[in-house]
Amino acid sequence: MYACLPKVMPEKLKQIAGADNEVVADLSEKTEAMKAQRQAFRSGRKSRIGMDKPLRIKPAIGTPPAPQFQPLENLKVDDTYQRSIEGGASRTLIVKIAENWDWRLCLPLLVSRRNGELFVIDGQHRLEAASLRGDIPHLPVVIFDFDDPKAEAELFVQANRSRRAMGMLDDFHAAVVAGDKKALEINETVQRAGLAVGRIAAWQYWKPGEVVFVNAIKRALTAQGQEVAVLALSTMAKAFEGLAMVGGSSIFDALCKLIHEANTSGNPLDLDLMQIVLAEVGLPGWQEVTRGVEGGMERAEVMLRALRKSYEEAGAE
Predict the structure, then answer these.
(1) Do 119 and 150 form a contact (C-beta atoms < 8 A)?
(2) Which terminal residue of the chain has fewer beta carbons within 10 Å of its beta carbon, N or C?
(3) 150 Cβ partners below 8 Å, 6+ apart?
(4) CB-based contact 88:202 (threshold 8 Å)
(5) What total of structural domains would you count in the chain?
(6) Which helix (H) or strand (E) holds 255?
(7) Pairing mode, if any, of strands 75-76 and 117-122?
(8) Could you tell me if residue 56 is inside a domain?
(9) Helix, strand, coil share (%) of the chain residues, nearest 5
(10) What are the DSSP calls for 112-152, one per residue?
């Protein structure tokens, strides 16, 4: 028995059977034809994806990473831009990783060295799972040098968006740290009202004093301006003090429109009265107003009518 690489088989057959052998000659022709066909396909594919053009190579960013193992206690997480892992989905994933740890699936964590400390950019779930197990003292990491959290946040966003879509709140908090102008304006608006933007999308984990409807705030900043948005949020903060603002998006949207309409007409709302109206109906009551109403625009219109009517009735009394 004789074995050789497929690409040298035709030549070996010529040596054994002779170049004028019909079978060998036919095999050689077919082999050459297949080579030509493959080459044509490759050339066509390169042309289709633009590889026939010279690459416009940019200078490499950063310095080569330093692969190593690090003790778990050396690895920190910067909560200003990292995803929250308090939600049910994250906790479920962490437990699953911990219970079924497989080193073949444990890629090195992306870590930033900043002011002598190590911060995990990508790999927070693996770090938490390893800590949960208790029998894994070290994890593989690749370390990059960053000057500030802003640069880390930018890499965090790139790393996670390239893998899967980021949650709205994850995206927002990372954008704030990265210095995104619109995100900073939203954050400033919320803080001026004495509130904070939450980190978890699931309403079961919302806390008093938090808002999560950043898209509604973004729309209000464009349509009614920051001062109106701050007034609306401040009024809601006082009316629903100590409560998680479940269903707050529709109320905020309607309240911004009412405040803007009143200011435009030259007859500003009595915000103290509006605060009383909001508090007396309560969050569950306002949620009932839009229950069963489909479509964001329709819900907003229904809430606007209900809020205007309640305010006018309270004013008449």
Answers:
(1) no
(2) N
(3) 177, 178, 179
(4) yes
(5) 3
(6) helix 248-265
(7) parallel
(8) no
(9) 60, 10, 30
(10) EEETTEEEEEE-HHHHHHHHHHSS--EEEEEEEE-SSHHHH
Q: Verify that 98 and 142 share a domain, yes or no.
A: yes
Q: How many CA atoms within 13 Å lie on the side-chain side of 115?
A: 4
- Give residue-wise pLDDT tens across range 96-130: 999 999 998 888 998 888 888 898 888 888 999 99
174 with 197, same domain? no
Q: What is the CA radius of gyration of the chain?
A: 31
Q: Are 78 and 149 in contact (CB under 8 A)?
A: yes
Residue range 169-215, pLDDT digits in tens: 878 888 888 888 999 999 999 999 999 999 887 777 788 999 999 99
Q: State which H helix or E strand residue 68 sits in.
A: strand 66-71
Helices (H), 179-225: 181-192, 214-223
The 3-state DSSP class for residue 249 equals helix
What length is written for the chain?
A: 317
Domain residues for the domain of 148 are 66-178
CA 254, CA 229: separation in Å to the nearest integer?
11
Please tell me the number of Cα atoms within 13 Å of 15 on its side-chain side: 5
* Structure token pair of residue 26: 């036919």
